[in-house]
Specification:
Pfam families: GerE, Response_reg. Helix content is about 55%, strand content about 15%. With about 200 residues, it is an alpha/beta fold. The chain has a six-stranded parallel sheet, sandwiched between helices. It is elongated.
Length: about 200
């Protein structure tokens, strides 16, 4: 049996996923949680083979949790199952150690196939998203540029951002200016929106 942990903050989605997967003769849902901060404890308690994680959840996001699981329970493989079909999220998920990435509007058979492939030691990526990721390339932003845009998206001034990132105001301005240029935006708010839409933040 393939032991599964499911994590999604939408109760209806979580219940539907569990119901569909329990119909498979070789799958057993051993844990269902609604926040990212519950995943690690539930995984340590139930020893799943695969954790199916949403990206955006309360507490901790699925990409952070995937990295946590890889460190704490290397025998548990992770599949990101999300509404976000963005190449940036795919890249970040793979960097965090996820073995699969499935978009929620995929047919149930594709999710089941992904689980079986990942359990067999393979990787699985939604084919349309994989093609888009290859065509679009990696994020053009450096880590510091992304940090500055994240802070800018919260509406802070340059001084606020500098304090939060422990950088000088001049350095923050340089990072924001570079990010604006790379995203071909007119303002830092627009640059943050573009970066978020591409999954770079």
């Amino acid at each position: 049996m393939i032991r599964l942990l499911l994590a999604d903050d939408q109760a209806l989605v979580l219940g539907a996923l569990a119901a569909v997967l329990r119909l498979e003769p070789d799958m057993d849902v051993v844990a269902e949680v609604g926040t990212g901060s519950e995943v690690l404890a539930a995984a340590q308690r139930t020893s799943p083979d695969i954790a199916l994680l949403d990206v955006q959840m309360p507490g901790r996001d699925g990409l952070t949790v995937a990295a946590d699981l890889q460190r704490a329970l290397p025998g548990c493989r992770t599949i990101i199952c999300t509404t976000f079909s963005r190449p940036g999220y795919l890249s970040r998920a793979m960097s965090a150690g996820a073995a699969g990435y499935v978009v929620k509007d995929s047919p149930p058979e594709q999710l089941v196939d992904a689980i079986r492939r990942v359990h067999a030691g393979l990787r699985f990526v939604d084919p349309a998203l994989a093609a888009e990721a290859l065509a679009g390339g990696a994020s053009p932003l450096t880590g510091r540029e992304a940090d500055a845009l994240r802070a800018a998206a919260e509406g802070g001034t340059v001084a606020d951002i500098a304090r939060a990132l422990r950088l000088s105001q001049g350095t923050v301005r340089n990072h924001l200016s570079s990010a604006i240029g790379k995203t071909q935006a007119r303002t830092r708010a627009e640059a943050a929106r573009i970066a978020e839409a591409n999954g770079w933040l």
